[in-house]
Design goal:
mainly alpha, 8 helices, DNA-binding
Amino acid sequence: MSDSRGDAEHPARPKRADARRNEKTLLDAAAALFVTSGVDAPVRDIAAKAGVGVGTIYRHFPTRADLIIAVYRHQVEACAEAGPTLLATSESPHAALRQWIRLFVDFLVTKHGLAAVLHSDDAGFDSLHSYFLDRLVPVCTQLLDAAAEAGEIPGDVEAYQLMRGVGNLCVGADSDPRYDARRLAELLIAGLRQPH
């Protein structure tokens, strides 16, 4: 008889495709609301945006911290996966970099809220920060290398430095509606462009 608990004799089954889709829908809805309303957005608003009941959210994510951490990881993965796709589909490597930085800015606005929520669990946040760097620095490097090889930007721009600079531009973006971090990040990326 099979057991869904996932012990040594009976490993946990992978989630069904519809369960993965439902979870992705929840995480996309939560991420969108976190960007506009912060990580304290009401669960009922997240449920309404995702088209599910509040109970469904709590079934997937028993605590707000569980939901926020899942959104964080989901957004890191979305950013990581977007880089190669943008390189393959954009009009130029610089355009791909510009679009990727937009995604990164949206992610960072959410991340600042996450930092406040996880303030009491420094070890947990440190592991998430390492995960973030491990997944995103190589993607940014790939985008920068492609733009440099195309002669669109200087070849000495380091991914970590650029990401840190963009991160600094995002500080305060979640608390001041007059401050547009995306616009400043756009100006930064435009400024990298080599004249032709």
